[in-house]
Structure prediction request, 343 residues.
Amino acid sequence: MDTQQNTALTRALAEIPGPLPTSGVIHIAIPHTDRFTVVGNHLAQHPDLSCTAVGIAVRIQSLPQGIEVGIKALAARCREGEKRIAAALRELEAFGYLQRVRDRLPSGRVITRTVFCNQPTALLHPRSPAPARPHAPAPAPAPAPNPASERTGPSEQPAPEAPAPLPVPPPPPLLPQAPPFVPLPPSLPLVPSPTAPKPPPRPLPRPSELTPELDRAATVLLSDLHRHAPQFTLSETDVRQLVPGVAAWLERAARPDAIRHALTDDPPVPLKRPALLLKHRLTELLPPSPPGIQELAALARRPRIAVTPFQTCDDCDRAFRSPAPGRCRDCREHRTEDVRAAA
Prediction:
């Protein structure tokens, strides 16, 4: 049995003027009569917008005014999740298609309006108000026939009356001139666009000098990781690539058990590339260099604050601060008053 051909498609292809291309897409353009939305090529072929953002923009543009277009409302209408929809909305905000403005109602309530513009570049040029159409003058009423003139003969025709003046139409009401259109300020994206270039990764730290002792200690530590965490089984190539990073940690006086704990603690499940995770942790969790001898000597030379010790009063046994033992201030005052009274 032969493959069934689509006669409607064959007939539509035959109606396309000119020769058909041998490769690429072939368009069959059927004019829409209802339920259609006009989308500009500046949006459909935007070089910096993702396909998800273009699709969300077309979906928002096809909705009537007053429909909710928040993240949860769009997630209920589309198959994309809330994260992808939120990222697409941020892209549209970055390029001016979508804007959120705060407005105050007459009641004093402040609301946020979501504005979608199908041509953001047109907002940069102020639009002039449309000119008012002049009112057409009303047609003059036709004169009513006079029955007396019909009964009189041609020799007894009355004198012609003066024509009545045409009514002057009232002047058209003055339309209030629209204020100049001020484009809304473009909102800044809260997070970088998914299409933004990412910064290059930081290089693996290296010691100031990779001595044989540091190389041997780092190799032993990396080769022994699988005994403490079986998912960190490394190849010989991975060990040789990660040795400079571990040596940099050892040079900074990090203990081997502390390095092992920092590298293998709480790994993701499942762990697909253990060497890449170790490289990331060796780079991002690198401890600071220990202070040198000069820094420690400067810290030791800092002046110390002298603290006056506590003493116990010989008369009342109350504690007070004094460089030498004796009596407190109250006991000294009482003793002075007793000596004066006896004198």
Observations:
- Residues 148-155 have pLDDT under 50 and may be disordered.
- The beta strands are 98-104, 110-116, 310-312, 319-321.
- Residues 310-337 form one domain.
- Residues 57 and 238 are 46 Å apart (CA to CA).
